[in-house]
Amino acid sequence: MVSEASVLFVCLGNICRSPLAEGAFRAAASRAGFAVHVDSAGTGGWHIGEAPDPRARAEAARHGVDITRLRARQVERADFQHFSHIVALDEANLADLRRLAPADAPARLTLLLDHLPGREGHSVADPYYGGVEDFAAAWSEIAAAAEALVDHLRCGA
To answer: How far is CA 156 from CA 6, 20, 111, 143, 146, in A?
Structure first.
């Protein structure tokens, strides 16, 4: 059972958006002096064991965040018991998470941009089939929302 704040970020393959979110959130939490368990996963299993996409690693590195050691994994039913917050990067993955969640799961399911005022209900666009500029745009939204989520969790929500 969950006893303190812990966050799992979820996208489709766990090689682009969710590792960026994990890295951005870790950095924001560290700057705030906020100790929290954080991880990322994908709803699909195509990339299990792989490092984040090279473009995601490069974009994170441009902002001083190292995500090179992260490895893709798939969401497990146990995650719904182990994390206080499971944060999807888009509505399709949020819908999948709601279907996977056990009825008694204590994890709070949200979209990442729900934590960014004015962006509630929006998805972070998947940059996978795009270029460097798409990864930069994803980072911008993700980093801002990660900062807001850290502030939200520090207030005890």
So the answer is: 12, 24, 18, 20, 16
pLDDT confidence of residue 155: 84
Taking the C-alpha atoms of residue 141 and residue 105, their distance in angstroms, rounded to an integer, is: 28
Rounded to a whole number, what is the distance in angstroms from the first to the last CA of the chain?
Answer: 17
Q: Are 81 and 56 in contact (CB under 8 A)?
A: no
Q: Identify whether 11 is a catalytic site residue.
A: yes
Task: Name the active-site residue from 16, 17, 73, 114.
Answer: 17
108-111 vs 85-88, strand pairing mode: parallel
Handedness of CA 128, 151, 84, 119 (dihedral sign): negative
**Known active-site residue 17:** yes
Active site residue 16: no
Query: Which residue in 79, 90, 114, 126 is the catalytic one?
Result: 126
d(CA 12, CA 43): 5
What pLDDT does 2 receive? 45
- Select which of 11, 26, 55, 73 is catalytic: 11
Q: Give the chain's residues under pLDDT 50.
A: 1-3
Question: Bridge partners of 8?
Answer: 39, 86
